[in-house]
From TrEMBL:
Segments forming a coiled coil: none
Protein name, per record: Succinylglutamate desuccinylase
UniProt cross-references to Gene3D superfamilies, sorted A to Z: Zn peptidases
Lineage, top ranks: Bacteria, Pseudomonadati, Pseudomonadota, Alphaproteobacteria, Hyphomicrobiales
Xref: Pfam families: AstE_AspA_cat
Highest taxon of source: Bacteria
Amino acid sequence: MDNLPALHTRKARVEFGHVTPIDETAIPFAIIESAEPGPTLLITAGVHGSEFCSVEAAVRIMQIKPEEIKGTLVILPILNVQGFHKRNIYIMPQDGKNLNRMFPGNPEGSTSERLASWLVTRVYPQVDAYLDMHGGDLDEGLEPFTIFPAGSEKSQAMAAAFGIPVLVAAGGAGYTVDASGKLGIPSILPEVSGNGLWGEATVTQLTDGVRRVMQHLGMVADAPKKTAEATKVVTMWVPTAPVTGLWYPRKDLTETVGVGELLGEIKNVFGEVLARIQSEKVGFVLYRLTSLAVNQGEALIGVGTPVSA
């Protein structure tokens, strides 16, 4: 089966199975449909196969019963199946590319480009809202945040409903939520946990956020209360490594930084400094590479800069 079953039958049902849109890769899915009409929410996880917190959260959401909701939930809990089982960082093993940089994809391209194209052309147009869960890869430390396509008021409202206080207004192309946003679908990408770790607190943070989004969309009546902490909208600047070497960050998560301040150094094994990374922005640290090893072109650190009101 190279496409999902019909999403709307007007009958209460739970349907589990596998869809094989590319390269004999069977992607698990769940369709949970209520007898009561309502929105269709797409939830994906495992775009990066080793972000295990997102996968476990999606697996738990698959246990929701039709009588608990209005509308339809479509859940793809592990998009990068081979990456998940091989514990790869970022990439799809079939082509060595980062799926979350390949959107809107290419139907004649490599594996990740074709999977992105399938999502954009066959799945996104059938849904009313989209939530792509991430969980901090094996080499990432991060403070939780939710990305939304900059300029989309509906997406920003969904991000606020999710309940993480830091919202990142993202520009650029190649991302899941950028491609869906360009189709007019309110879309968000929450990031919780880090270093591939998962546990009750972080998984619950994601599943509670999903329930709050469902309440926001009118799919459920009740959801866990979110923190009283004020929402902060930021942009994020992420410098990449100019050289390959050993990475020594000088700033920890949530620390404030100023323009020109040292964020970290890349050295060789003999202690020679190969590159000094200085901040181009004022803000605070949302993300940082936790690996000692770094390769040229890899993301090093994310500085969140509050958006002026």
